[in-house]
Amino acid sequence: MNCREIADFLNLYVEGELPTAERTIFEAHLAECPNCRAYIASYRTTVSVVQQSAARDDCSPPVPEDLVRAILASVTTPAT
Amino acid sequence: MDMVPPNNRPLLPDEEILPGLQAGEQAAFEAFVRRFCDPMYYIAQRILRNEEDTRDVMQDAFLRAFRAIHQFEGRSQLSTWLRRIVINAALKKLKANQRHSSQSIDELLPQFGADEHHTREFTLLESTVEELVNRREIRLLVHRRIQELPEIYRMVVLLRDIEGLSTEETAEILETSVMVIKTRLHRARQALRTLLEPDLKGEAL
Lengths: 80, 205
Prior knowledge:
The structure holds 2 protein chains of 2 kinds. Chain A has 4 helices and no strands. Chain A is mostly helical. The termini of chain A are far apart. In chain B, helix 1 packs across helix 2 (26-48), helix 2 (26-48) packs across helix 4 (78-97) and helix 6 crosses helix 9 (178-204). At the A-B interface, helix 1, helix 3 and helix 4 of A face helix 2, helix 3, helix 5, helix 6 and helix 7 of B.
């Protein structure tokens, strides 16, 4: 397995979806390739930072009050 | 996904809002809107990146929800049900407004030489994920870089990594296969790694 293949199948490896035989070959390459190890580490960090940043959910201003009022006004006559 | 209403009334659980909603009560609808408008606005805004479209979709989605509340069977939380309505409405709006052809992501993917090795060396970050995420500048940069992705990849990241939908749910919403979603997500994550690398390293210095 070469570095390009490692990058191509990285998502399956990280998600634990590589079949055993392929996983063994994958890890054998990693054992000998510090650059691929560093790439995988940065990939994992990126995914974690993205997901955990989303969980904080504080990068947007609140809904403008006029929009809230417009939404409420749109249903002043309840649906029957 | 709870929010504090502006007048600091305590949040009502789903089972207290739902009967009033299904009876068409205005007060229940107001509680429903005030409870969920911020997180839903955020979802629509991230998908649409346009204030006018976001406002349109918010009104459309909440009205649809109010009219369809009798179909809500309680198999999920109200927030989950509403989120699906908002996402579908936003994607429909996006599709209607789309005027660009598919952008290439290739230049953001890792590059390889003729020997199939990476053309550059990668180094480990000094900061932990927690240290990075605790910085608001980093969280803002994450959102900015996601917006820089080509559209089809941006959507997959938003739905999978930001909204936490499953691969199957994402495939259904985007009307494609699980395999396509997996491939797009991987390429999107690789592209984000490229885009975020200088940002994350800058914080580590």
